[in-house]
Every structure is written in C-alpha cells, then in structure tokens.
From TrEMBL:
Residues 102-115 have a biased composition (Acidic residues). It comes from the Eukaryota. Residues 119-133 have a biased composition (Basic residues). Keywords: Signal. Residues 1-21 form the signal peptide. It comes from Apolygus lucorum (Small green plant bug). Residues 95-142 are annotated as: Disordered. This is Uncharacterized protein.
C-alpha cells in the first residue's frame, strides 16, 4: 500500500468518525459531572465539548473539560452490551499564554505614547539641527 492510499484511508476513517459521533445530551453531561470525582478525575469546572459514538455494540462517550485547578481533561466512558462500564480520564496542564495581562497592556499603550513623543522630540531636534546647519551654510555664501 502506498503512502497516498494510507492517507486516504485515514481521512475516510476520520470522516466516518465525525459523521457517526453525536454531541452529548444534557443528561449525559450531568452524569459525567456527578461521577467524575468518584472515578478519581478532577472536578469539572467548564465543559468544552462531548461526543457519543457507537462502535460495534459498545457506546463510547467522550467529554473534554476544564478542571477547577486549571487543567484540560478528557473523560471517556465505555458502555458494553451486557451492562459492563469502563471509564478513564486524562488531564494536562493548560499551555502558558504568552499574552500579557490587561495591566501590562495598559503599560504598553502608555510606553507606545511615550515612544511616539520621543520620536516627535527627536524629529524636532533633527529638524532644528538641519535648519541651523542650513542657516550656517547660507551665511558662508553671503
């Protein structure tokens, strides 16, 4: 099998996955919320997304959320036909944002204003020097 046909197969499987997954209902999200800590996962602060799909006879529910301690978590629940349930979770720290805080942005705006003023002053000084030099040069020709 060539690399191209493998890529096509992977793309097709991804498309099938998207087509057959459904968003979680409010009841399913509430179920996750009430059992997450029981399963050892961090408490749910904000639900980001959730999907449910059926693979063969197994229902797989996945939910991504933010925990109370600022982690991004994924919770998975598998329901098998004979009533057996398996669950798992995984968390990772949020990536550090490179943006500055609002206070820092305000300081940046002020420093931009200061730099604009400095540029204007520098330009005025430069213009004065040019004018003075021009006047001196004009005096030489008199």
């Amino acid at each position: 099998m060539s690399v191209l046909s493998l890529a096509r197969a992977a793309l097709l499987l991804g498309l099938v996955y998207v087509c057959y997954s459904k968003p979680l209902s409010k009841k399913q999200i509430d179920y996750f919320k009430s059992h997450a800590e029981e399963w050892g996962a961090p408490a749910i602060e904000k639900v980001l997304n959730g999907t449910m799909e059926k693979v063969k006879k197994v229902k797989i529910m996945k939910m991504n959320y933010e925990s109370e301690d600022d982690q991004l978590c994924s919770l998975v629940l598998r329901k098998f036909p004979k009533g057996k349930i398996a669950h798992g979770w995984n968390c990772a720290s949020k990536p550090v944002s490179l943006k500055k805080d609002d206070e820092d942005e305000d300081d940046t705006d002020e420093s931009d204003d200061d730099s604009d003023e400095k540029k204007k002053k520098h330009k005025k000084k430069k213009d004065k020097k040019k004018k003075k030099k021009k006047d001196e040069d004009d005096d030489d020709f008199d």
